[in-house]
Amino acid sequence: MNMKKYDDILIGSGPAAYKMSNLLAQTDRRVLVIEGFEYGGTCPNYGCEPKIFLEGATRTVLQSQQLLGRGISQPAKLDWEALMQTKLERFDPWPGETRDIIKKNHDVEDGYASFIDNQTVSVNGHQYQADHIIIATGQTPNILDIPGKVSQGKDGLLVTTDHGEIQTDYVLDATGRHPNIEKLTLENTDIEYDRHGINVDGHLMTTVDGVYAIGDVVNRKQPKLTPVAEFEGQYLFDYLTGKTDQDIVYPTIGQAAFTFPEVARAGVNPDDVVNDSNYQIKKVSLKYGSLYAGQNDQISTLTLVFKDQQLVGASEIGDYAADDINNFLPIIGLNINGKEYRQKVMAIYPTLGDKVAGLLP
After folding, report:
1. Could you tell me which of 4, 54, 275, 321 has the fewest CB atoms within 10 Å of its CB?
2. CATH code at 284?
3. Other CB atoms closer than 10 Å to residue 209's CB: what's the count?
4. How many domains, the chain?
5. pLDDT digits (tens, 9 = 90+) for 172-192
6. Residue 233's domain is classified under what CATH number?
7. Do 354 and 282 form a contact (C-beta atoms < 8 A)?
8. What span, in angstroms and rounded, lies between the C-alpha atoms of 65 and 246?
């Protein structure tokens, strides 16, 4: 069997690999991208991008309901079929467009890669080697193997449990995700991994020389988010092309769940230091501000964590928690104190940004 060799092989095409593929396109390196499912990965096809798209309509509906009798007499209604059609029109072309962009500069294989040994991957009956093999297969949803069954009935779904049967329209499995490594046959290699992902060193190299992992498939304490994956893609490109020889250092990372209301956080988690006298925790209700009161936002609460008068963590639940926490990211990440902030920044009134200066010592 012929063995084709490349400079770099990318297994996956999600945010981490896509970032690297675009950067590698600016070089003369020979690159193969292997993708067995949707080009672009979870984020643009099923995850963050469609999710935030849907929030645009659902947030408007829920906020109008929240303001019923407080200036809104006719709350909005969600047209689910129209919303789904609008979403599909936007996102259905993305995998094909992403594949075309990659194929302009690199070779592609539409199939699942599996390792034959530490240096060789196989896909569609072809074998490949490279100076660098980069695993970027992300995560995949957990599907619980539980006693009972879910069956299709005449009027919906029938869930059979040890407590009887339940008739329902929907069944939601919200048990999280796990590393998408089953098809890689890592047992044929010396690559170490566990249920949290593939183990890597400070250069994102696995326990096999020349094999790296980036993105959500990595076993790391940092949150598994698209910007983190892209950050790793940029770092690994810089490392492999000699632009840095330092270990990867992650920035202060903001994270949010785009529910309604939203939850968001960055830096030190107050739950982790609630009994630590080195930290001070300040909790602030935001509902009294005119902006929040005008939106009938009754539950928005901001929690700040300080150490030696320096802001080191922020978290919030509220209608605009993600935007609010973004106000605090530069303060935490750049280690700015209250005096410096007030001297350099005057935020738009009367948003949360206006209150930030007053909340800092």
Report:
1. 275
2. 3.30.390.30
3. 9
4. 3
5. 888 999 999 999 999 999 999
6. 3.50.50.60
7. no
8. 52
